[in-house]
């Protein structure tokens, strides 16, 4: 069968020949019926047009009608339309009048007595209509042309059956089209018609590959590639209409039939096929259409009994409707699976929103009754409109908890937010707001504090308000610092006169105050108001309960930053605050836990801090807490940086930055960016560092003391690019802002030493000495070797000469006693340069070589490059830079190979680092090349398999 598209009809050569033969048969032995059968879009109407055209040319009186969704409900509607078109002479007018009279009278009787539409038609009515047709045919042969007979009213089909059984004696030929992919009430009558002795059923077969190739070439005006044609034929299923619409869409987009356009052809073809199936589906009986919608809602793997229940149908009727959907191409025959995944979406879009809501409600109820997983039931509740029963809320809350455990906070939030769309009593709404805030505090902090405030304002009981405020923290403050402080202080004020179990109320007050301080550090004006109360805290009375430990950690942190404590006493107090892991075990005390760790870190107790970071990061990953993960990774980045692991520090900083870029912008974002800039600076990647400083910070970031880290990072970039004046200006601004916060200790952010070196390079010797001296005084009051060594290094460079060398020697001594290995490398290089300037070349070479080795071990490229240059100038012959080995690995590669060395799979590494498996494979391939390895098992020989988290 070959189809052509000339704008009028498809060329059906063989089928048209059959039409010609049947018309000739009428002239020989009178009367024929031809049923043209095939799926929708197979060319039935086009062939009918050919039949009408040939009949008219052969001298037949052509009487034409068509069925339709509305026409099938009118008694004898098709018969009346047939005879109305026959009034061309006296005989025709009499026949029309008789036929209409007979049909009208029968319709009135059927309506009056409620008879079946066709079963009770009197034989005299059918025979009278037959005689009317015979009267017409006696004057001129008749060609009766009926399109979509399956949608013609049953009374008219019953008459056609009557006519077909007697057509042998009349010069009448009937051409009718029937869609075999439509289930309808006329099936029984159509079967009778097809079995009539003078009836021929002409079934239209699908297009073959050769015909499809011809169509593709004609529509796209080019010789098509075989794979292109194959895809077009495949997605159309050989249906001419679908193929034509596919090719028309491709032609409109000027798509050539080439191999590299196969995917596009498939995409366009699937859309055309879905549209065609949707048209076919609309023509089906109501139960069949409903079943398709139910399956679209439930999914392909739905149980038949659930489908039947949701569709409010008997199991037998559901099976019958499913068989129809399989026959028409909506479902894979014998299954409840759509023939294409896009089919479900197409059917859902064609369903009204109110219908979808009702189906999802029924689905949720049916699945819940059968004990389906809560996430499956909840998925339907999300689409079922606002929940109306508390049982629905229970399911949504359980599903939210499951989603949190699976590491899907966005899904968990969607469940709880949907639960809040219902109309509930205040207690239930408060409970939902609290549960939502717990999820949002890491994933959507802004919404979290808004919902917290709403929940607290709805509570009447001061105790309940206080407990809720405690249980829902910590929250990133952002621009909400002042508002949150007001809320917490209001909770404290209302809790004042509350009687009850005294220890519990005291602990609530203590925790509320601790949270209030942690929130206030996000805003200088708010913190200024609270500072006197912090200063008044008595350390000796703190440390017994989690709340007191939290206050003690905060008190020590601020005292250390203000320069009022030495490292030894600060570590002693913080150790007391962390006794029993009360801060680590309590989720609500994370900010205070970080304050304690910060004190230990600046006290250079890296041995105590590193394991705690590892534990916290592992737990944050396991529980999918992106804000906590970012905060801990950012802090550990600084630890690794000073400890002499620049690549590892950069990897941590990037992990934290990725969380911020994904939308989880927390209070520590400035610290994370500054840590990454410091690492990039040591690698000489100034452009990348500058781009990072263009980060979209939280609007309130500049009001926090943490913003000073960003100013110091900008100074680093300016210095690296040679703009010393701008670098100095930013450092001095950093110092001014730290003074606003009463932060005077050099150990928090050593801006004075750096500013002194910039003044020295700019020729401002007096100011350089003053700042360097202040930095040394501050470091000595704090008392850690690393801080003292760094300050001595700055003063030694500024002083120069013999005194400068003496200061630098002292700096090395302190540096060797410190875990801050990168600072020691820098001090060794400065000492070597000073020795070289004093013409002590041999000693200088030893010192510089040691500094070079240490800088190389730290992965500090800029420092190592300077050491190499100075060593050469001092007459040394440094070893060549290693192009292979662990020092040649990028931070990301280093992190991946550490995981791999521990035997962790690529998939697990990808999950741990929040990257794709392909990225892991890429890093491993590069690492093997740089390390000179051929297989994974060799990693343990060159990489220490420690935990890189």
TrEMBL record:
GO molecular function: adenylate cyclase activity; ATP binding; DNA binding
InterPro entries listed in its UniProt record: AAA+_ATPase, AAA_16, P-loop_NTPase, Sig_transdc_resp-reg_C-effctor, TPR-like_helical_dom_sf, Tscrpt_reg_LuxR_C, WH-like_DNA-bd_sf
Stored PROSITE patterns: HTH_LUXR_1, HTH_LUXR_2
GO biological process: regulation of DNA-templated transcription
Ranges for domain HTH luxR-type: 882-947
Keywords tagged on the record: ATP-binding, Nucleotide-binding
GO-annotated cellular components: cytoplasm
Name the record gives this protein: AAA family ATPase
Organism per entry: Umezawaea endophytica
């Amino acid at each position: 069968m070959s189809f052509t598209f000339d704008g009028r009809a498809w060329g059906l050569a063989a089928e048209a020949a059959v039409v010609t033969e049947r018309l000739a048969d009428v002239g020989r032995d009178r009367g024929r019926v031809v049923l043209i059968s095939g799926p929708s879009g197979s060319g039935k109407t086009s062939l009918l047009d050919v039949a009408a055209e040939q009949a008219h040319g052969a001298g037949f009186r052509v009487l034409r009608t068509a069925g339709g969704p509305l026409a099938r409900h009118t008694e004898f509607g098709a018969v009346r339309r047939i005879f109305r078109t026959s009034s061309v002479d006296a005989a025709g007018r009499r026949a029309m009048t008789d036929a209409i009279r007979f049909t009208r009278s029968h319709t009135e009787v059927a309506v009056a007595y409620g008879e079946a539409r066709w079963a009770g038609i009197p034989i005299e009515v059918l025979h009278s209509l037959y005689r009317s047709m015979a009267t017409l045919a006696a004057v001129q042969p008749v060609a009766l042309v009926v399109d979509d007979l399956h949608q013609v009213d049953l009374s008219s089909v019953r008459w056609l059956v009557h006519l077909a059984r007697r057509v042998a004696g009349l010069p009448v030929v009937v051409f009718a089209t029937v869609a075999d992919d439509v289930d309808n009430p006329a099936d029984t009558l159509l079967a009778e018609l097809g079995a009539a002795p003078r009836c021929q059923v002409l079934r239209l077969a699908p297009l073959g590959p050769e015909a499809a190739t011809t169509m593709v070439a004609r529509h796209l005006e080019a010789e098509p590639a075989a794979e292109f044609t194959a895809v077009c034929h495949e997605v159309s299923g050989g249906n001419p209409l679908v193929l034509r619409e596919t090719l028309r869409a491709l032609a409109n987009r000027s798509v050539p039939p080439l191999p590299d356009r196969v995917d596009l052809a498939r995409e366009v073809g699937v859309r055309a096929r879905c549209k065609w199936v949707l048209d076919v589906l609309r023509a089906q009986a109501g139960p069949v259409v409903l079943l398709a919608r139910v399956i679209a809602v439930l999914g392909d793997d739905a149980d038949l009994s659930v489908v039947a229940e949701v569709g409010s149908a008997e199991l037998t009727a559901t099976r019958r409707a499913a068989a129809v959907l399989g026959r028409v191409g909506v479902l894979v025959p014998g299954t409840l699976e759509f023939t294409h995944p896009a089919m479900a979406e197409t059917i859902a879009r064609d369903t009204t929103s109110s219908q979808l809501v009702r189906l999802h409600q029924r689905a949720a109820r049916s699945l819940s009754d059968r004990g389906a997983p809560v996430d499956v039931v909840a998925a339907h509740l999300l689409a079922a409109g606002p929940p109306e029963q508390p049982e629905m809320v229970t399911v949504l809350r359980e599903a939210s908890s499951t989603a949190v455990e699976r590491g899907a906070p966005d899904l968990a939030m969607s469940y709880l937010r949907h639960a809040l769309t219902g109309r509930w009593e205040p207690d239930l709404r408060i409970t939902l707001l609290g549960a939502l805030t717990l999820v949002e505090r890491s994933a959507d902090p802004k919404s979290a504090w808004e919902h917290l405030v709403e929940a607290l304002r709805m509570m009447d009981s001061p105790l309940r308000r206080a407990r809720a405020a405690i249980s829902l923290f910590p929250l990133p403050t952002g621009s909400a610092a002042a508002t949150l402080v007001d809320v917490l202080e209001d909770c404290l004020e209302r809790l004042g006169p509350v009687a009850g179990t005294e220890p519990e109320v005291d602990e609530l007050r203590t925790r509320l105050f601790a949270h209030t301080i942690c929130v206030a550090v996000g805003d200088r004006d708010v913190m200024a108001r609270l500072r006197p109360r912090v200063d008044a805290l008595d350390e000796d009375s703190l440390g017994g309960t989690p709340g007191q430990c939290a206050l003690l950690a905060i008190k020590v942190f601020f005292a250390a930053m203000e320069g009022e404590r030495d490292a030894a006493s600060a570590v002693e107090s913080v150790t007391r605050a962390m006794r029993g892991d009360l801060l680590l075990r309590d989720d609500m005390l994370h900010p205070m836990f970080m304050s304690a760790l910060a004190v230990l870190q600046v006290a250079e107790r890296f041995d105590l801090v590193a394991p705690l970071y590892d534990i916290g990061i592992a737990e944050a990953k396991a529980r999918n807490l992106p804000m906590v993960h970012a905060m801990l990774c950012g802090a550990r980045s600084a630890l690794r940086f000073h400890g002499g692991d620049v690549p590892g520090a950069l990897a941590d900083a990037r992990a934290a930055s990725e969380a911020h870029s994904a939308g989880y912008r927390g209070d520590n974002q400035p610290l994370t960016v500054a840590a990454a800039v410091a690492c990039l600076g040591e690698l000489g990647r100034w452009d990348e560092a500058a781009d990072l400083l263009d980060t979209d910070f939280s609007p309130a970031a500049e009001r926090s003391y943490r913003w000073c880290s960003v100013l110091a990072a900008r100074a680093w970039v300016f210095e690296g690019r040679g703009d010393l004046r701008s670098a100095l200006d930013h450092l001095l601004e950093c110092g001014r802002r730290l003074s606003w916060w009463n932060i005077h200790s050099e150990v928090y952010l050593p801006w004075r030493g750096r500013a002194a070196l910039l003044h020295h390079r700019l020729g401002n010797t007096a100011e350089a000495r003053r700042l360097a001296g202040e930095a040394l005084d501050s470091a000595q009051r704090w008392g850690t070797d690393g801080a003292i060594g760094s300050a001595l290094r700055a003063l030694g460079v500024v002083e120069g000469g013999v005194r400068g060398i003496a200061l630098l020697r002292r700096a090395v001594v302190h540096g060797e006693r410190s875990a801050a290995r990168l600072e020691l490398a820098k001090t060794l290089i400065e000492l070597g340069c000073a020795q070289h300037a004093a013409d002590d070349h041999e000693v200088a070479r030893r010192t510089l070589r040691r500094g070079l080795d240490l800088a190389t071990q730290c992965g500090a490229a800029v420092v190592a490059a300077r050491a190499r240059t100075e060593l050469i100038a001092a007459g040394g012959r440094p070893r060549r830079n290693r192009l292979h080995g662990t020092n040649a690995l990028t931070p990301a590669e280093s992190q991946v190979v550490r995981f791999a060395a521990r035997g962790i799979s690529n998939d697990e590494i990808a999950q741990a680092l929040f990257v794709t498996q392909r990225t892991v494979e890429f890093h491993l391939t590069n690492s093997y090349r740089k390390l000179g390895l051929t297989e994974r098992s060799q990693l343990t020989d060159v990489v220490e398999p420690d935990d890189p988290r």
